[in-house]
Design goal:
Structural class: alpha/beta
Number of helices: 7
Shape: globular
Number of domains: 2
Order of helices and strands: EHHEHEEHEHEHEHEEE
CATH superfamily of the largest domain: 5'-nuclease
CATH class of the largest domain: Alpha Beta
Largest sheet: 6 strands, parallel
Strand order of the largest sheet: 3-2-1-6-7-8
CATH architecture of the largest domain: 3-Layer(aba) Sandwich
Radius of gyration: 21 Å
Number of strands: 10
Helix content: 25-40%
CATH topology of the largest domain: Rossmann fold
Strand content: 25-35%
Length: 238
């Protein structure tokens, strides 16, 4: 009998770990890709945990691109579970005294005055560190939602196995409990260079996401819905 399995996708980790630097792979067909995680198994459901992004600057089209992608996912059968995206202004301490590490795009050096002003600020702030007022963007609720859905399915034995695409160590406990409930739970890590020892210690298995297969699992450039409407891939991702 084939194994029935669900896939739980941590959008933030997938995007930051794998897709952010691969625009041509962002139009990812998650159901097609999810089937590669267990080719002999029977995929029951893919859950995508995300939050509606907010504009970072004037004319920022990120929310429009996300809206198109979420429509494509839902049309394909993925269940999109939405948290909240929080944008706030916060004072944050600077890390470096160097001009080229203070702001991007880099501040011009005018006869060395810019660097001198920065050093003056550090001197005035001593023994503390100078601060900058910055925007902070936080995705709220997605990890809690993922943990809740995973544990619900594990304890109700909705599936025989679970695959979680994440590198977030905050999910160690729910993954541990799902395994203890008798549902093997496998972790797929997006990106490299992560400290995943905690996840590895509780997961049934852990492996990196294979980025080489992503180009083979993209939606068509234009998707036609049953109502005759088009869902088109953002031009920035072509």
């Amino acid at each position: 009998m084939p194994v029935n399995f669900n896939v739980y996708v941590d959008r933030f980790n997938l995007y930051k770990g794998t897709l952010e630097k691969r625009p041509s792979c962002k139009w990812l067909d998650l159901i097609s890709f999810a089937k590669t995680l267990n080719p002999a198994g029977n995929l029951i459901k893919v859950y995508y945990f995300t939050a509606a992004v907010k504009a970072r600057f004037p004319d920022d089209r990120a929310s429009d691109r996300q809206h198109s992608y979420l429509r494509a996912l839902e049309h394909s059968g993925v269940e999109v579970v939405r948290g909240k995206f929080h944008k706030s202004e916060k004072w944050k301490r600077l890390v470096s005294q160097e001009r080229n590490q203070t702001i991007q795009p880099e501040l011009r050096s005018i006869f060395g005055l810019t660097q001198r002003i920065i050093l003056e600020a550090w001197s005035k702030a001593h023994p503390d560190v100078p601060k900058a007022l910055v925007y902070e963007f936080e995705e709220k609720g997605s990890d809690v939602n993922l943990a809740s859905f995973l544990l619900r399915d594990a304890f109700t034995r909705t599936v025989n196995e679970a695959y979680v695409i994440t590198g977030d160590s905050d999910l160690v406990s729910p993954i541990k409990f799902a395994v203890q409930a008798g549902v093997p739970t496998h972790v797929i890590i997006p990106g490299t260079g992560r400290n995943v020892n905690d996840l590895k210690s509780v997961a049934s298995s852990l492996r990196p996401l294979d980025v080489n297969v992503l180009p083979q699992h993209q939606f068509p450039n234009t998707i036609v819905t049953p109502k005759g409407r088009n869902i088109t891939m953002p031009t920035a991702w072509s």
